[in-house]
User: What shape does this take?
Amino acid sequence: MSAVSARKALPFNDSRHLQAHQFLVDEAYLLDAQQYQTWLDTMTDDIRYVMPVRVTTARGAGFDTSPGMAHFDEDKYSLSLRVARMGTEHVWAEDPPSRLRHFITNVRTFECDDGTHLFVESAELLFRSRGDVNESTLVSCGREDLLRWCNDRWKLARRNIITDESVLRMQNLAVFL
Amino acid sequence: MIPAHIYNDKELFALEKERLFSRAWTFVAHESEIPQEGDYVVRRVLDDSFIITRDSAGDVRAMFNMCLHRGMQVCRAEMGNASNFRCPYHGWTYRNDGRLTGLPFHRDAYGGDEGFAKNQTLLPAPKLSSYNGLLFISMDPGAEPLQDFLGDFKFYLDFYTKQSTGGLELRGPQRWRIKANWKIGAENFAGDMYHTPHTHASIVEIGLFREPKAQKRKDGATYWAHRGGGTTYKLPPGGFDERMRYVGYPDDMIGRIKKLWTPRQQQIVGEDGFMISAATCFPNLSFVHNWPKVHDRNGRNDGVLPFISIRLWQPISEHETEVCSWFAVDSAAPPQYKQDSYKAYLMCFGSTGMFEQDDVENWVSLTTTAGGSMARRLLLNSRMGLLLDDRPVVEALSAESFHGPGRAQVGYNENNQRELLKLWADYLQMPRPALTAAAPATGTAVTE
Assistant: This one.
């Protein structure tokens, strides 16, 4: 991811791993609670937030994402518009709001050679329930994050979301992963 | 008046399968998705899986994805490049043009060609044809030619698909399932200008799109021409170039477009002052062309630019649809334009699109409600644009004020939705087409 290269895996008792893990858990809380403005502040101004479209390809094809196509391919401006929309009175996709639970697990942290970044892998399961008639839906994905130390805290600088479905079973992604 | 249950009715869905999707031309892919020899994508027409390939001779083919032997799918990837497809079950092998080339123990097991002639192919799609690179399949071997099926709607298809001699290139599709009947999206894209100011109010509020204000949308025209129709926005004063620039086309693209669009096509923009927006080609193929603001760069705060999306409302059941949504861009467009246009698409439409999110919410709710018994007692009023005695609220535009074929009119109306459902009803009244043409395609083809 970017010019920063990951070096070695950190043991689970390394304080940087604990900080990265806490960052992800705290972030999951913000996403569950739909506190999107606060969530936006956890990202750097040069954030790249990408969720490629996965495709079913033959073993050995050498690719498993749709060339040039993503679900999310965001920068800070486009994310800020999405967040601003959530604050309007006309966001029908989330009014009434979904009940969301972001489960985060399998967190692994890698130190980077520049000393100011951490590379963090995690698995995520999003449970989304809307209304009282529709079936609840799930999105399962892996995430590859780059955290950057900014003055006094970690911020998210890159996120690559690897969804496990080629055909999403969720009616829209008016949610974040 | 429309019986509300048509949006969630098992028997009607069975009829749609038997009489509509068995006959009408349906979109499966664009030629730009399989640019190289050996490239393939696997697409469905309802329950039937087809391998769409560019074979080693460069010809585009659509082959039923079922081994001639025991019926296994010979290709289980959704895209790739292959010279051959080998069935995982018993190892029968087919060239990428469908010819059976490998049959293990042909002599021992079948006695060679005397037992099973090897000069057979995967079953070809009953009909395959293309327009501006858009590939369509008809399941009816006796289908009218695609050109005739599309008819005058081709005039409008060109706006989306013919902006340079190289034509479109597609990315995607994003694919996701929604618990909504397939007709709702098709109707919405065909003509629902009326929903824009309300459903998509948030898009204007956040400054993503400056057009959907109620007054502006009302000034647009809808048109219907043979097998399709769509919506437009009224453009501010100016000539063709000025108005194309207004929605964000760079000059080099405008130059290429002017060489390809007919005088009448250019008059729609340059004289009549309408810019195409959403459209639907019967039965389940839709297009959208909008021009949002995608950056907040210094000095470019008002910059908007257009994007094109092509989408298929792939029916899964009477209450479920798989949306296949492609980003499309002219292949000759500058790289930065392509990148910005892609961004515009993602922000507005598709699985994460801020327009689309709110649409789907409505359509799922509508479909759920249409499945109950009360929906069978309700006729939905679909008469917008008509007085009680069937006279139009607003007269159709004259040939001088709208240079495209078909019927066009300014303002909110549901003409196009009615036209679409009229075609739908016509198809449901036709008998099921014959499964095969006079001679079966291979020795194993089913006969009536």
